[in-house]
Write a structure and sequence with these properties.
MetI-like fold, about 280 residues, about 0% strand, mainly alpha, single chain
């Protein structure tokens, strides 16, 4: 008969091995991208790959010299913050309403819109924005990206609102609180971690979305993710500059996640146990 402590020790070892393997699979492409951004251009595509090299910042110099990179970064921040704020503004009340009424079809409808390919929305968006003269504007990009952020906010917050005991809301109603006041004074403070998670996920998805930014922007409103493909040409690709751009593009979501890590972990587990 196997000793219980021995079994627990084996389980811990297996869990550790699984985490290490998962970490290697996830982090290897990222580490390769960062390393490539510091390699001389001729070594980025060298075969066999070079693991030992003399680091250089030439790719970053080339990136900022040949493109208005920081202008693109500002454009990305405006679009991402705007669409994330719009998603939170409408998504929080929508998720609360679905949880309050137990009517799920509006949430399912938004999920269906999120699951549909972006090209399905692209032509209607383009025609509509062209008719009102908004092609190349921040408004067009923010509204189109809200199609991505709104479903994320709703579906992340639904379990958080559902985890709040109904007795809390009923007690507030007995005290004379309206539904709107219950939302802003009681529900939102209780799901702060869930809001942090939904905001981060909405930020990341909007920041990295390529299709709408490529078609609906112009030279003045082009975002980083769309501008990065300037380094991809028909005959050749500037891999060093592209890796440098990709590294810089990945920094804002990473820094944001690190800053709110405590709320992120709490929010991911908030709806795991029904209150």
């Amino acid at each position: 008969m196997t000793d219980a402590p021995t079994t627990d020790r084996w389980i811990r070892w297996l869990n550790t091995i699984q985490l290490v393997i998962a970490g290697i699979i996830i982090l290897t492409p990222t580490a390769w991208m960062v390393m490539s951004s510091f390699k001389p251009s001729f070594e980025v595509t060298a075969y066999p790959p070079t693991l030992i090299f003399s680091p250089t910042i030439q790719n970053y110099i080339e990136l900022t010299r040949t493109t208005p990179f920081f202008n693109y970064a500002i454009n990305s921040m405006i679009v991402t913050v705007g669409s994330t704020s719009l998603g939170l503004l409408f998504g929080i009340p929508a998720a609360f309403a679905v949880s309050w009424t137990r009517i799920s079809w509006p949430a399912i409808l938004t999920l269906a819109a999120r699951m549909a390919p972006g090209t399905l929305f692209l032509l209607p968006w383009y025609v509509m924005f062209r008719q009102v003269g908004l092609i190349g504007s921040y408004t067009a990009l923010i509204l189109s990206h809200a199609v991505i952020t709104l479903p994320i906010v709703i579906w992340v917050l639904l379990p958080s609102f559902d985890s709040i005991p109904r007795s809390v809301f009923e007690a507030a109603q007995v005290d004379g609180c309206s539904v709107t006041r219950i939302l802003w004074r009681i529900a939102i403070p209780l799901v702060g971690s869930g809001i942090a998670v939904s905001a981060i996920l909405a930020f990341v998805f909007s920041w990295n979305y390529f299709l709408f930014a490529l078609v609906l922007s112009n030279g003045d409103t082009k975002t980083l993710i769309a501008a990065a493909f300037n380094f991809v040409g028909e005959g050749s690709t500037q891999w060093g500059a592209l890796m440098a751009a990709a590294t810089l593009i990945a920094l804002p979501p990473l820094l944001l996640a690190m800053l709110v890590q405590r709320w992120l972990v709490a929010g991911l587990t908030l709806g795991a146990v029904k209150g």
